[in-house]
Structures are given as structure tokens and as C-alpha cells.
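Sample intake sheet
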Amino acid sequence: MGQGQGKDLPYEIEDKYECLIGKTVWSVHKGKRKSDNLAVTLFVFDGSEGREQEMKAAKTAYVRLKTFRHPNVIKFIDGMETETTLTVATEPVTPLEEFLRQKDGKNELEISWGLHQISKGLTFLNEDCSLVHANICLSSVFVDQAGEWKLGGFESIRPFSDPPPPEGQRVYDPPEAGKPNALKRAEKWSWDMWGFGCLIWEIFNGPLPRSSSLKSTSKIPKSLVAHYCELVGANPKSRPSPASFIKNCAFMDNQFVTTNLKLDEMQFMDQSQRLVFIKSLNQSLDTFPKEFGKFKILPLLLNAFEFGGAGSAILPPLLKLGKLLDTSEYQSKIIPCLVKLFSSTERSTRIHLLQQVGQFIEHLQPSVVDAQIFPHVAEGFSDTVPAVREATVKAMVLLTPKLSEKTIDSQLLKHFATLQTDSQAGIRTNTTICLGKVISCMSKSTRQKVILAAFVRALRDPFPPARTAGIVAMSQAASYYQPTEMATRVIPAIAPLTLDPEKDVRDKAFQVIHLFLSELQYYSDHPEELPKADSSGSYSGAVVGTASSFAGWAYTSLASRLGRTGKDDAPQPPKEKEKEETKKVSSPQQKSRNRESPPVERKVKEENDDGDDDDEWAALEEDGGKDGWGDDWGEKKDDNNKSSGGLSFFDDDSAWDSGDVVGETEIKPGANFVKDSTRPSASSLFSKKSDDKDGWGDDDDADWSALDADPKTTDKNSNTGGWDDDDEWASFEDPKPTKVASGMDRAKQRDQRRQKQKEAKERRALEAGKKSRPLKLGGVKKVD
């Protein structure tokens, strides 16, 4: 900035620092630049009252400050000079005295690093430039936004070869000041190192009233006392140089100083050294001052990520420091890095991001997630490494609310459908849990078509925690079911699990059934609150034809059981399709038990067996998924078994290509992200043991671990066949029975079995009588 008038000053002068009044020729103010509101500190000198000598000192400081470029010297931004005024704009700094006053207590880590920085600044002045500052004290040191200490107050600076002024700030002058031959008896640093000793005393005690007060060391840390005494020694040649003070002072030998020195050298480290240092940095951040992390470490990390190839190693410290930023700063500094990291093909980077998504999800805009992040995340659904698929599923609990309904309906649910048949039991379970948590994010039409079909599939999973997850998910979706759905679809789907081999599954099934029964009981007591039927007479979301089919099957089953074949007892002639279904289920001897969960083995005593093995509801069991209760709940099929409703991807069989079950592999840094091109086929999915050691991965979240169980626990009665490859939501079905006995054959078999039991009982009684022998007990014969 060139010459001009004070009224044309392009800066707004704000609050004045009162602590420097009378201690410097400057009036120091906070300020900001009018053009862009850049924060600055303004040093203003007014020489209109005949202050020629002070004006000379101010000009000296202005020239030196303008020419110095050193990290431990205040950074010059702008200046303006007139005949009577001088204004200097610098980076925003705070006087050290004010900085220490604002702190609740003296942080020795901050002070140790600050003294280290002032020592480096004096090394630059004394040894490199052969200059004497001649005014080192509390009022000549300033602190920037990052907590870095910097030198100012250059009003008395002079070359070492020049004699000292006849008068000065006598309280800070060393003992040799004003004596003849003072230069011959001193080193280049002797004067300033005495002032450095005065600065140390003032840091711990406050402004120095007189030179004799330097003898009091009670408040100075013990590790610093010995070095402080050397600085304020009477012999100028015995005072250490700034470099030797840095090297030998034990007070500055700590983790904070070491970390700062490595930060300054980070740009010169090789790749491996930089990664090791960044990982160790995350462990130390909690002990560092917040200003230091926000204004010094964070910019260095961002620079290392942008130009140094730091990669995912910066993620933990980056997210920790991001908590110190406001919303606008987070969007401008952190979000671009996260978006770039999501596009990485390294598995370790992707997993670290997905595991820590909860720390930054609130700062992600829905448009950014939908357009820039999800396309990369979605690749993890088909990765060959199970850990990547698992982490991707878990992260979707937080990411899904940020997605558009179009993305959820057309992309996300298709991935979930595929993952519900994953080779890893833990992934199938977590997929169901995730579906239960993101129900509210789906569109209404999609929700009605998907949730019941997806949860019924989980109920038929051979992995017990997966079945439990399906039950819990159904209860979470209770508010979305119509009463008709509860009665005809939900409760019948859960009921078989009340006989599950696993007690946890049985208990949860009973709890949820009671929940739905209480809902139905309420509607029974308050029928006026039932949802209104549509023009066809069915409730919204109800299964078309379910009630009529149910009644037809029940009547046929009872008639067959009681042997009623007369015209009065026979049901009305059904339609062609219903005839086929009735024919399939008319025999009460039918053993097809295609339940959502494997049945429990029942032990029946022979002597109490009346031959009635199946109850009157046996005919209601599923028949290969072709009777309306099978694989596809909620979709009405035509004669060609093609879906006439629901999402298009339900009939997409492209997800099942031939290939082997993919095992879990070790994730190494640098491993590239690869899509799974050989996913397991439906027929071989559960024919091999799972490679997942724990079934759940490494997760401490209670929501994901509550269902934890031994993945090796398998259901011996689990279904292993009956897959419908044309329906991604197909269930795990039992093999179809090879032969179905007629009602007459069954009655004949029952009579034969009873006759054999009767004959066997008579034989046992006869044999027992023949083996009886008289025994003598006290002279009396007795027969056992």
C-alpha cells in the first residue's frame, strides 16, 4: 500500500489492547480489511504531538518488520505512512500478556513450545543476521491464532557492532549496559538472552517491576530454574546462545515440542515416515491446545492429503480436528477430502471411512451423498471380501436417510435383495437389521411390496440370529401393516418359529406374535377404527384372494380328515386353478412342511400313539411356493408364474451366476477394490460352511451385536433346497415330498399300527407271566 491519507485507510480499526498502553510506542488494535473482512492486527503510531524520537523508532520497526520473513516473526501484510502517522497491518495476533491472562491456568506445554519458538527467532536475529533486538520482554512477544509465539517490538533493534543507546528501557537492560568496553565483554546474543531471562520471569510472575525481582524463582518450574539462572547471570559471556539453550533445556523436552518439530519437517519425510507420524499424531491430539490443532495441524494435514499422498491415514486426526470447525468451515475443508477418499479403490480406506461415517454424517448434504458418495459406496455391496460388504451394509443405516427415494427404490433395495442370500451368515443378518432400520426412508408403494417379502425370507434363514433379526424387523414395521396383513400374512409367517430349535428365536417369536395379537384385539374391540376397504372390498395392502383360498383349504382339509365325501359335506366346485390347489392339499396324510423355520422333532410314546400324527391344519402347509403362501408374499402370479406386481428387480435372476462361495480374505493396505464377479449360486449357498469366523465382524455397536451368536450353530432341520431363482426374495424351502398317501390308505395304516401295538403288548404281558418264580421271604412264599 502506497502513500495516502488516514481517512483513506482501507482497514476498520476496532478494539484496542489496553495491556500495552505505556509499554510501546504503538497503539495496538484489532481490525479487519474493508474489502474482504480479513482479520488483521493494526499497529498505529500518532506523531502529531512532537514525538520525533518515538517516530524514528516506529519507522525503524516498520522497516524491519516489512523486510523480515521468518516463521517466528510477526507476518507483515500492509502499511501506510504519512507525515505524522504510521499504520502497520499484520496477521491477527494477540499480545502475550493478554493471551496468558485469558488462559485459566498456565499450560506448561504451550509455554515450552513458545519459548522454543522465541529462541529460534533470536537465533535468526543474533546468529544469522548479527542483530540485537535489545527489547525482549513480555510486551514484545505476540501469539497468532494457532498459538504460535512470534517476535515483535523492533523499535530498538540495531546491528551488534553499533554501541547501545545511552538510554533505554532500563528495567530490561543487562548489568553491562552503559559500561565502557561492553561490546568487547559480550557475545552477539548476550544482551537478548538477558532479556529472554526477563521474559521467562514475567511469564510465570507477571510484568517485571525492577531488575532485583529476577532473583525470585519460586514460581518458575524446577526443570527450568537452572537454565533461567544462566540467562540472568552477571557475566555476559556465560549466558548460553539461543541454539544451546534449545539443545540443553530439559523444560522443552516433551511430546508437544517433539510433535511440533516433526510437523515442521513433515513435508521432507518419505511416504512411510509420514504415515507413521500421522498415525501417532492422532493419539496425541487430545492433549494439544484446540487453537493449535485447528490452525496449525489441520492445514498441514490437508496439505499432506492434497499433495503428499497421505491417503486414509489422515482420516482419524482429520475427523477429530473437524469437530473444532463450524458448519461452513467443515463444508469447505473436510467434505472435499471425504468425497475424494470415498472414490479410493483401496479396501482399507473404504472400510475406515464406512466404520467412521457416524462422525461426519451430520455434515454431509443429501445431494452430495446421493450424487458423489453413494455410487462409490455401492461398489462395496458386490466386493469379494466379506469385511467390505459387511461394513457397507452397516454404514447404510446412516447413509440411507440422505438418499433420494429414486436411488433407494431403484438401486439400494436391489443390493439388499442380493445380500440376503450372501454366503456369510453375518452379512445376511445385518442386511435384515438394516432393512428394519431404514423402512421409513422408502416410498409408500415400495415399502408395501418389499418389507414383508424381505422379512419372511429372513425368517427362513438357517442362521438363528438371522431368523431373530427377521422377527425383530417385522415388529419394527408394525405401524406399516394393515390389520388384514397382520392376521393373514404376518402372524402366519412368524408362527412356525414358536417351535424353532433355538430358544432365543422362540422367545422372540412369541413376543412379537403377542404384539400383533394385541393390535388385532384392539381392532376387534373397536371395529369402527378399522381401515376402510377399497372398492374391491379389500383393505389397503392386503393379499388379494388370501382369505378365500384360506377358507377353501381349511374346509377341504377337515372334510378329508373326517372322511366326508357326500354331496352335503363337499365344498363348492372351485375354479380351475383352485381345483389344482385343492387336489394338492386334499390328503391329510401330506407331509410337506415348508415352514419359515425348521420344525422341532416331537417324541411320541408308542403306548399313547393314537395314529393321529397330523392335525386338521396340515393341508394349509406350503406346497412348493405355488399355493399363494410360498416364496412371494404380496405378489399375485398368473398361470405362467410371472409376477404381475411389485418391483422389477424381484424377478431378476442375474444376481446368481455360477461360482464358488467366496471366502474372507485378509485386507492389506493398498489392496484395490474389486467387484465380485463370481457370487455363489442359490443352490450351493448353504451347502458349504461359512468362512466367517464370528458371523458378525468386528463391531461394538449394540444395535449390530445384540443378535450375536455362534455362526457355527446351524439348524439341523434347516431347509437346503427349493430355491426359486427367478425371485430374489425367494425363501428357504424344504424339498418337496416324493409321495403323498391318500386318506383311505392312511386309515388302513393306522388300524394296522394299532393292531400291531395291541399284539406286542399282549406278548410282553405273556412273557412277563412265564418268567415269574416263587420266592421265600421269611418262610412265606410270595410271587413277584
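Comment: The chain has 25 helices and twelve strands. Confidence is low (pLDDT under 50) at residues 1-6, 533-741, 772-784.
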